[in-house]
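=== RUN LOG ===
request id: a7f3
mode: sequence -> structure
chains: 1
length: 316
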Amino acid sequence: MRSTERDELAGKDGTTPGAARLHLADGVPLLRPEEQVFEAMLDGWRNQQLARNLALSTINGRERKVRAFAAHADGFPWTWSSPLADEWFGDLRAVRGCVRSTLRGYQEAVRLFCDYATDPAYGWAAECERRFGTHPVQVCHEWNTAVHMQDCEAESPKRAFTRDELQAFFDHADDDVSRVRGPWPQGLAAPSATRCCSRPYAYGLRRNETRMLDVADFGRNPEGVEFGEYGVCYVRHGKAKKGSPPKRRSVLTVWEWSAEILDQWTTEVRPAMRHADGPALWPSERGRRVGLQRLDSRFATYRDDLGLDRSWTFTR
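=== RESULT ===
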C-alpha cells in the first residue's frame, strides 16, 4: 500500500488499521506465542483490507491461501523463505495441476500478505524480532512468480458452444423443466436453476450477475418495442473494481425468444413457486436466491448428459 493511501486510512491517533499494537497488548505474555501472533497478523491483515473496501469473498479467499502456504511450509511467516515458496508453487502446478490463473492467485495472496507483514508502518517485523529473534521477509519476487500478460487465460479446450451444441443444451434444459413441472407443480426450484443456466446466454451474463437479477431489473427499449417489458436488462451486480461497489451496466435484448422466455417465466412459472413473493428473479425453494453451487451443478449435469467436454464451465 502506498504511503498516501496509508495516511488516509490512519485513525485520529495516527494508528494504521492492522497495526500490531492494535492486536497484541504490550506486556501481556502469550500462552502459544507463535500461533497467537500469526492469528493476530491475519486479523490485522483482514482489517487493513476491510479499510480498503475489499469484498469479504476476496479477503476470505486470500486468507485461505495464506493458511494453505503456512500449512505446507509447516512454519510461521517469520520462518518463511523463497525456496519454501518455490517448492509450494511447484507442487501446486506439477502435482495438484493448478491452472495458470489459479497459481497466480495463490502467489498474489502470499505476496500481499508478506508486503503487509514486512511494512514498518504496521510494526509486525519489530514485534516478531522482539518475540522470536527473527522477522518476516518477502518470499514472492518477480523471478519466482507468474506474470499476468493477457486478459484471457482460458485453456485451449475451453471454447464457445457451437449452434448445434447450444440448441441441444437449451432443449435438454426445457425437457428438464417439463419433467419437473409434471408430477410436482409446487416444487419448481429445479426449473429456476435450469433457466439460470440456459438464459444468461441471451445477455452475456456472469454467474453472479445472473443469480442477483430481480424481477424489476428489466425495462422497455424505445428502439425495440417488439420486446415489450424486456427490452433492456439492467445488471446491478457486475464484477467490481478493487474497493468499488458492484459495476452497473445495461444490456439490450437482441433475440425475441429471450423476451418470450422471460415473460413466460415471470407470468406462469415463477408465481407457482412456493417462495415467489421476494424480489429475486430466480428464487430457490427456501425463498432465497438460487446459489452459485446450484448453478454449477445444474450446468455440469446437463453438460455430462449431453457428453460435452467436462472442462467446460458456466462461464466458458
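=== NOTES ===
Residues 5-14, 183-189 have pLDDT under 50 and may be disordered.
The beta strands are 218-219, 232-238, 247-252.
=== END ===
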